[in-house]
Amino acid sequence: MRTDERGLAYGGGWLDRAGGLRTDPGWIAARLTDRESVLLPFWRDRCLVSAERVPVRRAALDGGGLLGAADETVFLGLDAGRALFAVDLSARLESEALALAGAAEAVDVRALVAGLGAAEAAVQAYAKGLLHWHRGQRYCGGCGAATQVRDGGHNRSCTGSGCGRLLFPRIEPAVIVLVEAPGEPGRCLLARHRGAPEGSWSTLAGFVEVGESLEDAVRRELAEEAGVTVTGVAYQGSQAWPFPAGLMVGFRATAASEEIRVDGEELVDARWFSREELRARVAQGRPLGRIDSIDHHLLGSWLDRRG
User: Taking the alpha carbons of 57, 59, 65, 69 in that order, is the dihedral positive or negative?
Assistant: First the structure.
């Protein structure tokens, strides 16, 4: 049973990203002076929020101070015809950024997600990820020349003579896997990662390497970190994870045997858990992974599948 993407945080694709319009600088400029357009201010990857911890939204026409103070302003998309822009105030002192935005504090979107609607969480994470990329892409990696913003902030181009390289926002795909033991009773593999709190267990995950398919990455990660050989690798769903640039791709797989050999580097322990054990952990108030992560949904769907 695949994960229902509607239940995953930070996704949904509800904005019209206006790919056919944002390439026109005149159209972007007009949206910045449109009374319906909205600015979403950020400071160093954090949302600027009100005293009620609601993300601040400012009308573009009333936010002249924000636009003038911004390191970068990027177009996010259209919401029912209204343009949304993300504004980066990272070069300012935090107190100055808060004052400019009329905000009470700067907060990581992951600390807010439980109190946000799905659409708001998605747009805040999208804005944060895009602004983070811009801050790290001021110069061309090929010739070292400065880069400039194009297409409303959806790519940058090198200004170097004879170069002109186009640079696009980087996405870093990672696989995350629910591994089942062979045979009955039903059990799944969870691990303790180095640096994780005592008693914290989660599914296994890892970044996709050059020259790998997603399924190759699943098999390699399980073999390297847990000494587990898997079969029947099956796609379950994906999740936007712009912290700063991830795409989490969920899989289910079956182990060829119950043997486990943790690497001692990434993992410090791993073992098989029955459904009864996981339900007992939930009853004790221990969450199944992060509540905003596909990890939580993979484990939840496995618990619900049989009994």
Answer: positive
DSSP the chain: ----GGGSTT----SB--TTTTT-HHHHHHHHT-TT-EEEEEETTEEEE-TTS-B--EEGGG-HHHHHH-SEEEEEEEETTEEEEEEE-TTS-HHHHHHHHT-SEEE-HHHHGGGS-HHHHHHHHHHHHHHHHHHT-SB-TTT--BEEEEGGGTEEEE-STTT--EE----EEEEEEEEEPSSSSPEEEEEEETTSPTT--B-EEEEPPTT--HHHHHHHHHHHHH---EEEEEEEEEEEETTTTEEEEEEEEEESSS-----SSSEEEEEEEEHHHHHHHHHTT--SS-TTSHHHHHHHHHHHH--
Sort strands 38-43 and 58-59 into parallel, antiparallel or unpaired: antiparallel
pLDDT bucket at 307, cuts 50 / 70 / 90? very low
CATH 3.30.200.20 corresponds to the domain 172-305: no
Tokens of 232: 């029947």
Give the pLDDT confidence of 165-182 residue by residue, as tens digits: 999 999 999 999 999 999
Q: What would the two tokens of residue 93 be?
A: 């002192």
